[in-house]
Design a protein that fits this description.
The chain has 89 residues and is mainly alpha-helical. Helices cover 82% and strands 0% of the residues. Helix 1 packs across helix 3 and helix 2 runs antiparallel to helix 3. The radius of gyration is 24 Å and the shape is rod-shaped. The termini are far apart.
């Protein structure tokens, strides 16, 4: 299963994985499937949820990095300049 999950991460975009996961949940909620079909759907749903989580974790890491860079740039700009209150009298 790990190979399938890795392949899904490489080939499925977040939106694709999310949409397929929604379909899996609908099918499970609708019922009418055999036990084997339901188990297969559940396992696929777990794989898709992992793919979505990886995408979201990656997006969060990128956002955090961008915010950290922005904060660092603002801090540098504030430290490098002199305010009127800093001027010698």
């Amino acid at each position: 299963m790990a190979d399938q999950d890795t392949a899904d991460q490489d080939t499925l975009g977040y939106e694709q994985a999310r949409d397929e996961l929604i379909d899996v949940v609908r099918r499970l909620e609708a019922g009418g499937s055999t036990l084997e079909e339901s188990l297969a759907l559940w396992e696929r749903g777990e794989e898709l949820a992992r793919v979505c989580r990886r995408w979201l974790d990656g997006a969060r890491a990128r956002l955090d990095a961008a915010l950290a860079r922005e904060d660092g740039e603002e801090g540098d700009a504030e430290d490098g300049g002199t305010d009127e209150g800093d001027a010698p009298s």
